[in-house]
Amino acid sequence: MELLEAIRSRRSIHEYKEEQVDQEVLERIFAESAWAPNHRMKEPWQIRLYQDKGKEAYAQVVMESYQRQGFFDGYDEEKTKRLQEGIREFLLNIPHHALIYMERDEDIRKYEEDYAAVCAYIQNVQLLAWKAGVGVLWTTSPYLHDEQFSEAIGFDSQRFKLVSVLQMGYPKRIPNPKVRTPIHQKLHLYDGNEKS
Ligand SMILES: Cc1cc2nc3c(=O)[nH]c(=O)nc-3n(C[C@H](O)[C@H](O)[C@H](O)COP(=O)(O)O)c2cc1C
């Protein structure tokens, strides 16, 4: 697959087939993505991959975070139970959840460099996965900012920044592309001929 074709055709995937992606394929994607640029060669990305039975505990702490954030407020017990079961099923039906995290540098400039490098890494994951027929959804759900969620999955939130959870699996449905803005609306040339 050509680079431009991969960039243009990749879509965020919301619906997945049941089938698991081979561990080897996933490992290759995560390994090759490390060619992302990163300042000081810190390679700041870390990955925790929830899959198989590991998804159960993950879904449970996600649910508890939603509850703390008032997601179920105002619903009676039965409706709350149904909503929770729906979310749980939804999460368990996604074959892989890759939590991407990094250590927080106390120096804000270095923190930003590390965050940028992790985002470059994530885009590499998205493109390499796409080339392998694997769909990804880059998510930044509110629980990633919930300290109690961090603690519940064993992270000291002062020390680690949870960047994203990448949902991964073979796409059941590929959404239509969303149009992009023509670049002349965003590219501002300063070549000495601009009007002051
Ligand atoms: C930092 C970041 C966070 C995102 N978080 C979410 C998310 O929480 N939920 C979601 O459905 N999509 C999320 N997306 C995916 C975007 O919605 C998606 O890229 C956009 O709609 C364009 O669609 P495309 O990727 O198919 O071109 C996120 C993307 C980025 C870069």
From TrEMBL:
Classification via Pfam families: Nitroreductase
The keyword Flavoprotein is assigned to this record: yes
SUPFAM superfamilies: FMN-dependent nitroreductase-like
Record key words, sorted: Flavoprotein, FMN, NAD, NADP, Oxidoreductase
Keyword Flavoprotein in record: yes
Gene Ontology molecular function terms on file: oxidoreductase activity
Cofactor(s) the record lists: FMN
CDD domains xref list: YdjA-like (cd02135)
Domain Nitroreductase, residue spans: 7-170
Source superkingdom: Bacteria
Family, as annotated: Belongs to the nitroreductase family.
Name by which UniProt lists this protein: Nitroreductase
Taxonomic lineage: Bacteria, Bacillati, Bacillota, Bacilli, Bacillales
